[in-house]
């Protein structure tokens, strides 16, 4: 049968978002709990060099964003993080990306709820955290309540949601900016603690490890919010592309400056005599109290609940659109794809069923990772980098099918795509085995579920009546001749090799030269895997021409030729 653009597929793309709304999505996702809790984690790993972790993470995000924005503006599609890899590389690669993206957004719900619970403990609510700073059973119940609240707020009409989120983001940005200004103005003296000597830094290698393990990547995640809604951007001058670029790049650059400044404040005010329990959920509130700015401390403690909640709202809302794209491709239950089937009513246009599934996944992750904020954000960091690596493959593979740019511009973006893919591999390698295996194990579980549930539905008719999706796992049987399966083998093989390098060389006690060798091999294998992915994807495109939206031409998908969809 031929796959054509269907009317319900355009429903999500009728709403038009301004730069204010787009920045609300980007900054609202970025400014969450990471800036409050990440500085202490980074400091423990890298000492006074912790600011380098925020610099490395921000530069990596700028590089990745350059690739993702180029792809998102050339083919603007709501739900594009799943839709575009599907068009370039086929169903199995799209399933791997979807599993990672779904887990990132769902685990974010759990991690922000944990941050809100930790903030309550700063208000002297007893019994929420144990001695290791993880949730008790009572704290776990509080986190579940916060997750339910975030999901419930997403049930309001989208026009109200975007208005609430945008103004909430303004408040969330003002508080950390005010914190930096006032604490710097208060002076780096003995009132706030003892300054850390310059020689207490642990070097660039420790800072590189902190990028994933200390919540740095987690703190930057969310800039892609406007790209999740790329099909909804206003088209009048200055146009879709300009609005997306301003929102994404402006958010990354602004947050990078803010995070480095916050880390500098933390490093200068930190005193080794203060424990994590002394400082509570927000060290900056403790610093404010130490300098006599009690009102700022109160504001920061309130923001400790508000800021994570705002970020959770953005991720939960964006996930509904990405899962809808996944459902339309029949990679998961088809009943999740339309507002008519999965929302409260046409007026609200909310995918409540996705929110229910999201809540369940987040609860499982919360329990599996022991209610630890650090463990949740480390898993999120690994999964995020895997998801962010694939748009570069899609951009290079779809080169001939995207709107015509100059050859020089295309070549430049191809270089950026390869560089971002290699750097992602290097950052994952530097994160270490302890973080990498947990994130990739979660990805494996997600892939198995998405790939095998359709087969289970065929074997069990009763289950098939409630879960309706196409079987794609059988493509691996034809991996020698089927390009889409070959692309998936290249991607999964790359991740497997990266795990082995990290296990045997990354955490090797033998010596520094073994770790350097492992990093070199990680980059080399990443570049080889990238070329293999692109070649397999291009062969897939020749067999199944992509259906891509045209910038500024409305949400209708343009198909160069009819696409045969296997049943």
UniProtKB/TrEMBL annotation:
The chain crosses the membrane at residues 20-39, 51-71, 92-111, 139-157, 169-188, 203-223, 244-264, 284-302, 350-369, 375-396, 416-436, 442-463, 484-504, 516-534. Keywords: Membrane, Transmembrane, Transmembrane helix. InterPro entries: AA/rel_permease1, AA_Transporter_AGT. It is found in: Membrane. It is a multi-pass membrane protein. This is APC family permease. The lineage of its organism: Bacteria, Bacillati, Actinomycetota, Actinomycetes, Kitasatosporales.
